[in-house]
Amino acid sequence: MRILIAGGFGFVGGRLVQHLTAQGHEIVIGSRMLKAPSVKFHDVEVKKIEWNNGFTLSQICEGIDVVIHAAGMNAKECSEDPEGALSFNGNGTNRLAIAARDAGVKKFIYLSTAHVYASPLVGSITEKTETLNMHPYATSHLAGESSLLEIGKSSKMSAIVLRLSNAFGVPIHWSVNCWSLLINDLCKQAVQKKKLILTSDGTQLRDFISLQEVCRVIGKITVANERFRAKQVFNLGSGASKSVRETAMLVRHRSMKVLGFAPELSFLTAGHSKTPATLSYGLKNLSTLNITVNDSTINYEVDNLLRFCSTNFTH
């Protein structure tokens, strides 16, 4: 299968390239860079994306079976430039989806975010939960979702939205913009500071999912034969919540096993934040495809992330 991964040098995209190449697929990376620093992929074609140029987008999509759209501005960038966020996450997705449809692409998978529902996520979240978050990160992704799903309704191309929860893991290179993610940051702190410093009381609940599991699930969706007409929006997380403090304790425990020491943990005293009663990130739509998520990969990913940080951030 010939797969275009937009944002293939990025955090999730880079790992997808590695995973899907290992599965025997023919991968094309779509990127604003023709070459990423110090990143070497074997048997992978790289094509430059000009997001405002519909003609070049159509050319990139020619001969492609599946498009996986993993490019986008992060929350901080969206906050600093709301208009740019809408232009890239929203309008850029629309243009790429149109180009894919016109080129005869069979399936388009868009990596959106769980934070379209709310921030922070609280309570029971399903694909039917109302999307209320007005942060530019959420609204720009919703604009991209809406454009893709509308195009999917009127074409033969399957349009699939994956609302990704808190993914973490080893990037393809240390320079990938992923070190503000909680677990990635904690692993880096463990190596550089031998401390784990939380800027809250750590009671907030989050749904963490390893990049290994993200790639495995997306790989299954990529090759699935279902037309995805009935359920086109899928939550993608572990389905299990952990507090920030529990997560820091996990990193501390894995540090002892991997690095040989347990970093000191510090956090604000209780009472500085409200503790949500529960967080359940429902994966019902994935289960209808007989796809289950295995959260036992979390330790494996944390261990590899600690080793990666030890190699790249010791000095």
Can you describe this structure in just a few lines?
With 315 residues, the protein is of the alpha/beta class.
Features:
10 helices, alpha/beta, UDP-galactose 4-epimerase, domain 1, three-stranded mixed sheet, 20% strand, 2 domains, globular, seven-stranded parallel sheet, Rossmann fold, single chain, 315 residues
Structure description:
The protein is α/β, with parallel strands linked by helices. It contains 10 helices and 14 strands. It has helices at 11-22, 54-61, 75-80, 82-102, 136-153, 182-192, 211-223, 244-258, 284-287, 297-313; strands spanning 2-6, 26-31, 44-48, 66-69, 107-113, 123-125, 158-164, 166-168, 195-197, 205-210, 233-236, 241-243, 264-266, 279-281. The strands form 4 sheets. Strands 3-2-1-4-5-7-11 form a 7-stranded parallel sheet, with helices on both faces. The longest helix has 21 residues, at 82-102. It starts with a strand and ends with a helix. 44% of the residues are buried. The mean pLDDT is 92.
Which strand order spans the largest sheet, edge to edge or round the barrel? 3-2-1-4-5-7-11
The rounded Rg comes to 19 Å
**What gross morphology would you assign?**
globular
Q: pLDDT under 50 segments (min length 5)?
A: none
The portion of residues forming beta strands comes to 15-25%
What is the helical fraction, as a range of percent?
Answer: 25-40%
Taken together, the total number of domains comes to 2
